[in-house]
Amino acid sequence: MSPESFKPITLMGANASGKTEIALELARRLGGEIISADSKQIYKFLEAGTAKPHGTWTGTPAGRVYLVEGVPYHLVDTLDPRATYDAGSFVKEAKKLIPEVQARGKVPVMAGGTGMYVQAFWNGLDELPAADPVMREKLAALAEVRGKEALHAELASIDPEAAARIPPGNIQRVMRAIEITRLAGRPVSQIWSGRFFNALPAHEGKFIFLKWQKDLLAERVKRRTLTRFDEWAQETKALLEKGYAEDCPGLKTLGYPQMMDHLAGRLNKPDTVRTIIAASMAYAKRQNTWFARYRNAVKIELLKFEDYEPAALAEKIINS
Predict the structure, then answer these.
(1) What CATH code is assigned to 3-126+203-213+289-319?
(2) pLDDT tens, 302-320?
(3) Which of 120, 214, 237, 251 to pair with 291, CA 20 to 30 A apart?
(4) Which of 218, 315, 319, 320 is nearest to 22 (CA)?
(5) Is 43 in contact with 50 (CB distance < 8 Å)?
(6) Predicted structure pTM score
(7) What span, in angstroms and rounded, lies between the C-alpha atoms of 113 and 50?
(8) Which residues touch 29 (CB under 8 Å, ≥6 apart)?
(9) How far apart are the C-alpha atoms of 107 and 86, rounded to whole Å?
(10) pLDDT digits (tens, 9 = 90+) for 43-102
(11) Residue 264 CB partners (closer than 8 Å, separation 6+)
(12) Can you tell me the distance from the alpha carbon of 233 to that of 99, in angstroms, rounded to the nearest whole number?
């Protein structure tokens, strides 16, 4: 294969889109290795709620690799749920991994639904102040007491331009914008370089966006939630019994707070299922909005369940 053949493929899409199965097909057909661009599958012990692919660790301590159906699958199952992980951490690790995969004569297949990671890897990150846990805790408390609209109003008072660009519902970005503005002593909108919103560099790799019709995706989310519910509940219970705090980074993952409410008797099973599905679909909407702005990505629309055939879709991607 020529060096051109080792260019990365980036597979994007909302949760429950079926990215893992297609990524595995691509890796098998091309002789590839997968780099997960998922902010929660990085954590150990979180499987049912993150749809982490089942795999096994092999190799020596100095060279361990997570294998899924025989395919090396990187950046999953490595981090303690108490640890924090962000786009900067992902970029640092992925920038090291991809050349190593290519040096082995393999095709890197980046697959995941964390748009911030994809964007940060391909277009870079601005130099911003490190997070301030104390300030973040105070902002989270403000949102809890007064609501996310009040937090957004706080941002609007110190940086109207940033507030116009960040919707009130994206509470994490609102908090980060306030945090940066306060720490830097100037509006975050003056710090943003703008490169973060550049088009993806199609000359450096192939970019694929899986886009399900909304009602079909909702059904897939529902099926996954119901199928994994009991395992998810047991997994959450085990983590709490191990001493993991309810507000540790890993347990803030979508679905786990609802599952903790269920275990505590605050939500019955039907209500827990409904709230997880609603939260999943709200997240999927944000993911699809994010990925849809990549005009130079190849969009594969799935308009009926029969359209999802991993082997055929992998072949289509290879030939696109």
Answers:
(1) 3.40.50.300
(2) 999 999 999 999 999 999 8
(3) 251
(4) 315
(5) yes
(6) 0.85
(7) 11
(8) 314, 315, 318
(9) 25
(10) 999 999 999 999 999 998 778 999 999 999 999 999 999 998 989 899 999 999 999 999
(11) none
(12) 39
